[in-house]
Amino acid sequence: MMTLEKNAILAEKARSSSTSHRRPTPAARWIAALMAIPLLGVVAAFAIAPGTATETVVVHRVLEEVPLALPASQIETASLQYWREEQIQRGDTIGSLLARLQITDPKAANYLRSAGKARALYQLVPGRSVRTVTNADGSMITLRYVNTDRTELVVERRGDDFFTREDSLTGEHHLLMSSGEIKTSLFAATDDAGLSDAVAIQLADIFSSEVDFHRGLRAGDRFSVVFEGFYSNGELVRTGRIVATEFINAGRSYRAVYFQDASGRGGYYTPDGKSMRKSFLRSPLEFSRISSGFSLSRFHPVLQTWRAHKGVDYAAPTGTRVKATADGIVEQVGRQGGYGNLIVIRHSNGYSTAYGHLSAFAGGLHAGQRIMQSDVIGFVGSSGLATGPHLHYEFRVNGIYQNPLKVGAAPGSPITIQIQSAFEQRSRPLLSQLDLVRGINLAALN
């Protein structure tokens, strides 16, 4: 308001000045108006004082012709090179990956698909990165792919040929933290959180005795993880072991930390030292759905008759890994009637488990071999009397069939008094990190 009043007073003074003074020209008034515009937040008013001589501003109009196009660059665009990087997604092929990298080079694509030395690219690991150098026309010059945590696959073009080598990587180890919420499935939730499938599989394995990942997951369940990450040249090349984790299922919280004793024997324990390991896993598959349960009378889809179904069927894609549900000794490996490819494992205290309809057995598996819990023993298939790929799993006690879903499992050995202090010293900072990531997760949800 003070500025407006000041402008009005100055303008009034200009109007009431003696008529003997020269009246400002339009150009001079225009310049004064421009100077009165606020600049950088400072407001100032300018006026022509009485008696100030002014002159007419001479304006010259200059016309120049502006070219419609810029002069052609002296740089040959064909010599330009472009760095590009893409992260591998689940379901990617070499073709889809090259398309996202904007590589239009049939010769390079054929080489990557057929060269034995480039075979590492056949197993595209989701989450890892591929970096390339290309020409402006989309032809590939160099491709780099971190094959393992120790080596990087390098494919280079030399003239019309391609050459492949493996470079050693220098790695760094860090502890990483993340969290997520279940909306549809555990895999989808870990994808949303930017975590690898290896983390999801570990989560299911750690809590397999507490959480039913086949039937018990609920929308809104949450998880938090502290895990190892291995880096090379600033890139996460591999996720390692989960060292602390929490899973909240149907409102109930389960926590676990990893601890390794002086002898090198490690496992997951609750914060108060109880073992997360049970004598038997809930399921021999990490993820699947139950297609047929234990029943004394079920209509057999192949034989078209009513008969007892003495196990549980887990529907899963052909090739899904099948794990031993407990320590034991392989009693039988081979084909047997309607079971198709069958494995029978003998456990302690008169227990035994059977795994049928397999597509293949784990390499080198044989009768008499000692097996540890969670060892991969075979792969889902549809051999024998099966209408589709699934695993038939049986649980027997002294030869009598039991419902695998109702069999209780004894807990493993807890932390002993002798190592209690070492366990607490190791677990305390891990649990603090778990509290931190859980707090961030809860804050994001609110």
Report on this model:
The chain is of the alpha+beta class. It is 19% helix and 34% strand. β4 (151-158) and β5 (161-168) form a beta hairpin. Residues 1-23, 26-50 and 296-300 have low confidence and may be disordered.
Summarize the topology.
Layout: H1 2-16, H2 26-35, E1 81-87, H3 94-100, H4 106-114, E2 129-135, E3 140-146, E4 151-158, E5 161-168, E6 171-181, H5 186-192, H6 197-206, E7 222-232, E8 235-249, E9 252-260, E10 266-269, E11 289-292, E12 295-299, E13 306-309, E14 312-315, E15 321-323, E16 328-336, E17 340-346, E18 351-361, E19 370-371, E20 376-380, E21 390-397, E22 400-402, H7 420-445
List keywords for this structure.
single chain; 446 residues; alpha+beta; ten-stranded antiparallel beta sheet; five-stranded antiparallel beta sheet; 7 helices; 34% strand; disordered N terminus
Distance between the termini: 46 Å
The number of helical segments is 7
SSE run: HHEHHEEEEEHHEEEEEEEEEEEEEEEEH
Unreliable spans are: 1-23, 26-50, 296-300
Helix content: 10-25%
Compute the number of strand runs.
Answer: 22
**Biggest sheet: strands, sense, closure?**
10 strands, antiparallel
Question: What is the gyration radius calculated from CA atoms?
Answer: 37 Å
Estimate the global geometry from the Cα principal axes: globular
Averaging pLDDT over every residue, what do you get? 78
Strand content: 25-35%
Q: Quickly give the structural class.
A: alpha+beta
